[in-house]
Amino acid sequence: MYKLLFAGLASFVLAGCSDQSWRTTDIGDIMPPLDFTLTNEEGETVHGEDYRGKATLVYFGYTFCPDVCPITLSRLGDTIRDLDDETRDNIQVLFISVDPSRDTPEVLKRYTDAFGPEFIGLSGEQAEIDAVTNRYRIAYEYGEENENGDYLVTHSSAVFAFDREGQAQFLMRDSHPVSDAEADIKRLASQGG
Q1: pLDDT tier at 15 (50, 70, 90 boundaries)?
Q2: Who wins on pLDDT, 18 or 89?
Q3: Which of helix, strand or coil describes residue 33?
Q4: Domains of the chain
Q5: What is the mean pLDDT of residues 109-130?
Q6: Pair 92, 54: CB distance under 8 Å
Q7: Where in this chain does the record put each Thioredoxin domain (predicted)?
Q8: Is the four-CA dihedral 110, 111, 116, 120 of positive or negative sign?
Q9: Is the pLDDT of residue 174 over 60?
């Protein structure tokens, strides 16, 4: 009888523990809360606190990115579209451009509109972008311009997730199974607030 009681208690404790962890990388204890000063798609200055109240996914990239950005944002859009209406209303994606010279507010708006209404483009002065990328330990680097003035930007493909209070929760990478990323996004978006 004690073995059965212990087994039941152990599975309850383990189930409780699994409820507190994410399938992707938990960053709750190592990343700071959502905080920045940038410019939105309307050309207005915004701050991290302006985006509290919804689960927030943050991705750093640029609109001229030929592959990683559109693939990542498309996957996020697909996952968000699979949510029920109420849960979908509680999530937003901040696409922070690391290429402010080309990614004007108008360019960002056209780009993010292609992925869904939950996507918001942000950029800013170089110092503002450096402040937020340094805060979240994101490295990026500009490539050499070609004869047309075009260039690539090397950048992280990680997606940061914050809860409704702006607290860091988890980090998704390309190496995570899509099913794990989707499960964590759904769980984050459905959490009460």
Answers
A1: very low
A2: 89
A3: coil
A4: 24-190 (3.40.30.10)
A5: 97
A6: yes
A7: 25-190
A8: negative
A9: yes
